[in-house]
Amino acid sequence: MDYIRRLPVYLLLDCSGSMSGEPIVAVNQGIKALISELKGDPKALETAYLSVITFDSSARQVTPLTELMLFKEPQLSTGGATALGGALKVLADCVKNEVRTTTDTQKGDWKPLVFLLTDGAPTDNIDEGIEAIKSVSIGNVIACGAGANANSNTLKKITNNVLMMNNLTAGDMAQFFAWVSDSIKVSSNSIDAKPGEAVQLPPPPQGFVIVP
Amino acid sequence: MNSGEILTAVLESGETIEYIFDANAPRGGMKHTFFTPDRKYVVQFFNNPRDAHNIAMQDRIRTIVGIYNPTRSEADGGALGNTEKTADYFRSRFCWPVGIVKSPEFGIVCPTYPQNFFFGDGASTVLNLKGKDKKSNWFTGRNRRFLDSAELGDFRTMLKAATGLVRGIRRMHQAGLAHSDLSYNNVLIDPKSGSAVIIDIDSLVVPNKYAPEVCGTTGYIAPEVLATLEYNYDDSRRALPCVQTDLHALPVLIYEYLFLRHPLIGPKIYSTESAEKDDFLAMGPMATFIENPADTSNRPPDLNVTIKSLSKGLENLFLRAFVDGLHNPSERPTAMEWERELLRAWDRLTPCANPRCEKKWFILRDENDPVCPFCGTRAADKIIRLGFKSEMRGKKGVFREKSEVIVYNNIPLFDWHVLANVHNDEKASTDMRAYVCRYNGMWLLVNNGIEGMTSPAGRLVPKGSAVELKNGTVFRMTNRENGLLCEVQVY
Fold first, then answer.
1. What is the C-alpha separation between B469 and A53, in angstroms, rounded?
2. Which domains does chain A have, with CATH numbers?
3. Is the full-model pTM beyond 0.90?
4. Who among B143, B272, B275 is closest to A46 (CB)?
5. DSSP A59
């Protein structure tokens, strides 16, 4: 019998029109590389479960929380606006429905880890989305703003952990996903197990700026 | 700098070493790693510049590479009393840092792990593992099902890996060093060959040096360390990694190798407040051994093979480690005790009579009830036990048992089965001195190069000749000084 806890990981990916071309190709490749990398880490393979939520003019969960061995990379395409607020609401619903809580008879999941990637300013009301994610228990939310149009002030309203990536080249995107993979590995092997405390993530790659 | 670019590091010794820059270099909690072009060494730098500039840490690492280095002979600047032979022995058990980088910044140079600790072709049909290092949790948890059965070894090779690990840790502890972060991440195992290698040596706790700020890995952190993490690093209430905390992590690993499960992870729910709180209690202040005989609250319902399936000696050590010593560090068995009992258990290994038994070997608990605990098959052959006895000092003709062996076909015997003053350790020769084999329905002990072996009747048994093993037979392994007496029992 196994008594393994799951580490739920949610990727919130911007698929608005401005992501078309090289950026979205890089995101698709990034997810592929991420899965392949995590499958090479025994602890991540055992514990990490991955879900993809995308947003353009609206938001939806394209892959429900799935164990790595069964995960099929979605083929993402672009078009439309940037419904970031909607994406946060979808995230809150998914966490509510998918993340198991600990009961007298069941080992619950770890607090989820959320990675948000966006290249522009939200076109909907993000305050409702922020309210929604406050109502659920999440371990770490890391927001990454990519390119010149990403707005760090908006992202700061969502989380304290904001990274800025200067451009949207395939190389930068690959580094971002490599870092996401390292972060998931560190979290699933969580070195510091103080209850309730967020796990310290590895430093972001060169060329990424942490917004204080 | 671009990935693939070859850079040069200057060592404190004045030598230089080339390494390949990689923008996506593998990153651990503390360091990131680059390979040398020939992939024989890795050059590691600290993620955090504060660590790299920490004088106390640099100083500590210098002693690890120098006077505390068991992989270098004393003559070569390594550990006191270390010979080239023992240095060579420990080189295969540790990835010990061999040099310190001073430029472009402070870092260390380590040998790459030996090739057998990387997965090769065909390790798995569902995962692409080629070139990945063999962290022990590939083999001890659910991930086993993804590996080719040829990768998994058997009970005997896992026992051997455990013994190799314990030996390395015993050597460290002997020198007063503590590893401080023993876990599946920092001990690679190769179940195929039954070997283990201890890595990440730079976080060692060194006597009288400022201790590294690591606390360990979840599941291996000693309960007292986890329970006091809330205090500041320099608060006296905070328990820090030391030899005694290694002596928690070490049996956790041994238990995992032998049983393929974690000794503290069972069905018990400690808190419904959050998963984090539940785990904190389960691994920290409330930790309960799943096999605790007096408290079965964490016992899984499907435990068939237990510590009672091992030798009595190992059972007792596990009880001391996970019952008496779980919350009372001074009660934990030492690495030397683990080494001794694992070697004793090794001498009681018996092949399972069932050709389809997945474990193939088991530790014989009771000569009169030789049943494989893994598959329930009873031994087909008679059990033959050799007792090796040494003459007590100053009491001529009075013998005391030094060790024993349960024999099987082609079991090798070594100097420590021949001489009273040789023990199965890193100093002993691994040349086979004799072996036992089945021949025409007889069990024979064949001399493979012992001078002065004598038959029960006292006649010399030259190399290539044999003594038949019958119940009650007594003979000398050698009539030379410190020679052992061999007494045969057939059950």
1. 72
2. 7-211 (3.40.50.410)
3. yes
4. B143
5. E
